[in-house]
Design a protein that fits this description.
The protein has nine helices and four strands. The chain has about 260 residues and is mainly alpha-helical.
């Protein structure tokens, strides 16, 4: 192996490597070290790739917890749902207002038409009518609530498939545990999608009826909720026959389900 410097000996010492028959040859120290470095580098890379999904999941969880707590008091400036829908609509028209600045008739119409057990359940109504367009079957098909819709609009992506609904259910229970009912209704009515890039009751009311959400009449509020339920039927300000009939049905439901909004008093 040539002359090598040895500690405490002034002159270089000739060093030999011995290969014993039947045993594998050992790599020189430099080569062995380089091989070890290469193996260590590959190992670290594989571990980093393996841990990437876990680290991303942790990051998403932390962000979700932070937003869930912060939005208990702070109005969300924008939602993932809005940003994803922006690609198709090209605009976001929305403004946040306090629940007191939204017509009580609109609040009652939403509860009467969409979730008359809103003040009673803990986040999910398991006896709701299933949505046939979602393609979800079984007991999960009957799970629905204003809180679930809030979760879907605030934290998730547009859709109503099995995965979407399976995530909505546990998050709805958490939101109902952390937020009061009034806050749930307030945030939902400020981010609900009325179609064509129009979000929130106040912005939608201004476009459809040229007035604020606080000034909506009973029939206008019913039409607003009818338009929210079926955005394909056009705007509440110029309703189709189907939308008008739906609005009249919701107006009747407000009378039939008096007391279902007791948590808002």
């Amino acid at each position: 192996m040539g002359p090598q410097s040895v500690k405490n000996i002034a002159r270089p010492v000739r060093v030999h490597r011995v290969q014993i028959v039947g045993l594998p040859a050992t790599a020189p120290p430099a080569e062995a070290k380089a091989a070890s470095v290469r193996r260590g580098g590959r190992g670290r890379l594989f571990r980093a790739i393996y841990r990437l999904p876990l680290n991303l999941a942790r990051l998403v969880f932390v962000l979700l917890v932070v937003m869930l707590i912060a939005y208990r008091w702070i109005n969300p400036p924008v939602t993932p749902y809005m940003l994803m829908s922006l690609l198709s609509t090209g605009k976001i028209e929305q403004r946040n207002v306090a629940l007191g600045a939204i017509s009580m008739d609109l609040q009652r119409a939403l509860i009467a038409a969409d979730d008359h057990h809103f003040c009673l359940h803990k986040g999910v109504d398991w006896d709701a009518n299933p949505d046939p367009s979602s393609g979800v079957s079984g007991s999960l098909a009957h799970a629905n609530s204003i809180t679930m819709r809030l979760v879907g609009a605030l934290f998730l992506w547009p859709g109503s498939d099995l995965v979407h609904k399976a995530i909505e259910v546990p998050l709805a229970y958490v939101v109902d545990l952390v937020w009061p009912k009034k806050r749930i209704l307030e945030v939902y009515l400020n981010i609900a999608d009325w179609g064509n890039g129009l979000y929130g009751a106040d912005a939608a009311s201004e476009v459809m009826f040229h007035k604020s959400a606080a000034q909506l009449t009973r029939n206008e509020a019913a039409l607003m909720i009818a338009a929210l339920q079926d955005r394909q039927q056009g705007a509440a300000g110029s309703p189709t026959n189907v939308l008008s009939e739906r609005g009249a049905w919701i107006a009747r439901k407000i009378d039939q389900r008096q007391g279902s909004d007791s948590c808002l008093q």
